[in-house]
C-alpha cells in the first residue's frame, strides 16, 4: 500500500514510470472487471486500456483516502455500463454474437481433470448468464464476487446507496438462479454434471 | 412452493446453525429454484479472474503516447484557429478604421475626439446621479435597515457559495 501511494504521488507529479507500475499492479482486476461486464476479450482489453487512460487523466481528482483499486474499478464499471448502454441503444446485442469458444477461461485449481472441466463449464455458463443482467446489477455482482468488494465499496463505486446495492445484488442472484435453472431444464443447454453436489 | 425462509438465508449468505443447515438441505432436495440459487451462489464464490494478454502495460504506454499526440494536435489546431480569427478580426477592424481616416483625416479625428468627450461627460453625469441617490437613501434608510440588507446579502452570498460547492462536487467514478 505504501508503494502504491508512492507511485500515485509520483504519477501525479508527472512520472510515467510510476503510473506504469500502477498499470502493472492493477491490470488483471481491471481487465477481469471489463471482461465480465462486456463478455469479449477485445472489448475488455479496449475498456481496460481506456480505464487506465481516464485514471491517468483524472489522477488529480483521486481521493487518497480511498483505495486506489476501488477507484479504478469504479471508473471501469462506469465506463463499461456506458458502453453497454450505447451498445444496447445501437441495437447490437451480445445475443447476436457467438457464445461458444469466444473466450478462454482461466484454469481452475481442481483436483482432477473432470472437476477442472466441470468447473470450467460452470464458470463459462455463469459468464454467459451474466450478460442477461441489467448493467448496474452486473457491475455490482462482479464487484462483489470477482473483486471481494464490500457493499459499502460497491455503493461508493457505483454511486448508489448501500440498501440499493443489497437489493440489486439479491435481484441479480435471483435472476441468475432463474436462468441457471432454465438452462439446466432446457434440452441442449444442460450443464455437464460433476462429481460433487453444489451444497 | 414456499421458499421462505430458505431463499432469504441463501440471499443473505448468513451462517446457519446445524438445525437450519439440515432444514435447508432438505428443502434443496425438493425445490429446484432454491437449489439453483444455492448452485449460483457457490459458483459465484468460486469465480476466477481473467487476465489480459501479456504486454498490457506496453500497449497502454503506446496508447497514452497516441492520446498525448492527439491532444497536442488538437491544441495546435485550436491555437491556429484562434490566431487566424484574431488576425482576421484585427484586419477587418483596421480596414474599417484606417480607410475613413485616410479618406478624410480631420473629420475622423474630430469624430473620435467628440466620442471620447461624450463618454467622459456620461460617466460624470452617472456619478452625479449616484451621489444624489445615495444622499437621499441615507436620509430615508435607517442604520438598522442597512444592517438587515447587509445581513441578507451576506446570507445570499453564502447560500450561493454552498450551492456552487455542492453542484461542482466531482464523484470518484469519473464519467465522461
Protein described:
- The complex is a heterodimer of chains A (199) and B (176).
- In chain A, α2 crosses α4 (68-89), α3 (41-57) crosses α4 (68-89) and α4 packs antiparallel against α6 (135-145).
- Mean pLDDT of chain A is 80; it is low at 92-111 and 190-199.
- Chain A has helices at 2-12, 16-38, 41-57, 68-89, 113-130, 135-145, 151-158, 162-185.
- With 199 residues, chain A is mostly helical.
- In chain B, α1 (6-12) packs parallel to α3 (32-45), α2 (18-30) crosses α3 (32-45) and α4 (56-103) packs across α5.
- Chain B is elongated and about 105 Å long.
- The two termini of chain B are 47 Å apart.
- The mean pLDDT of chain B is 87.
- The interface between A and B is large, with 60 and 40 residues.
Helix-strand layout with pairing:
The complex is a heterodimer of chains A (199) and B (176).
Chain A lengths: L1 H11 L3 H23 L2 H17 L10 H22 L23 H18 L4 H11 L5 H8 L3 H24 L14
Helix pairs in contact in A: 1-2, 2-3, 2-4, 3-4, 4-6, 4-7, 6-7, 6-8, 7-8
Chain B lengths: L5 H7 L5 H13 L1 H14 L10 H48 L1 H36 L2 H25 L9
Helix pairs in contact in B: 1-3, 2-3, 4-5
List its traits:
heterodimer, A: mainly alpha, 8 helices, 0% strand, B: 176 residues, mainly alpha, 6 helices, elongated
Task: Tell me, rounded to a whole number, the average pLDDT of chain A.
Answer: 80
Q: Find the count of extended strands of chain A (DSSP E, 2+ residues).
A: 0
Mean pLDDT of chain B comes to 87
H and E string of chain B: HHHHHH
Give the low-pLDDT segments of chain B.
Answer: none
Give the N-terminus to C-terminus distance of chain A in angstroms. Answer: 37 Å
Query: Roughly how much helix do the residues of chain A carry, as a percent range?
Result: 55-70%
Using the alpha-carbon principal axes, give the shape of chain A: globular
Largest interface: A-B, 60 and 40 residues
Radius of gyration of chain B: 38 Å
Low-confidence runs of chain A: 92-111, 190-199
